[in-house]
Amino acid sequence: MIQTASIVGLAKTILILLLAYSIFKYVMRLISPWIIRSMARKMAQKFNQPPPNYNSQNEGDISIDKTEKKQHPKQDVGEYVDYEELD
């Protein structure tokens, strides 16, 4: 049994796609505020948490860690020669 394409079948397919799209849009309008609200709550919780490497020092305590500077050997590139441009 060979089936052929028909105008009625095409119209049904287009109507079904339009109906599915309309329902999807309507459902997303209902659900999206809930999704955005929950995402904002999660971001606020992460923002209010201290960082994982947070040191609980007393307020006003200062610590200075000095590192030794490495002496780089001075490289002698050469002698600077001033020159004038000739026309």
Distance between the termini: 93 Å
pLDDT average, as an integer?
A: 83
Q: What's the Cα radius of gyration?
A: 36 Å
How is the quaternary structure best described? single chain
Short synopsis of the structure:
The chain has one helix at 7-48. It is an all-alpha fold and 87 residues long.
Summarize the structure in words.
The protein is mainly α and 87 residues long. Helices cover 48% and strands 0% of the residues. The chain is built from 1 helix and no strands. The protein has one helix spanning 7-48. The radius of gyration is 36 Å and the shape is elongated. The mean pLDDT is 83.
Furnish the topology, listing elements before pairings:
Elements: H1 7-48
Task: Fill in the keyword field for this structure.
87 residues; elongated; mainly alpha
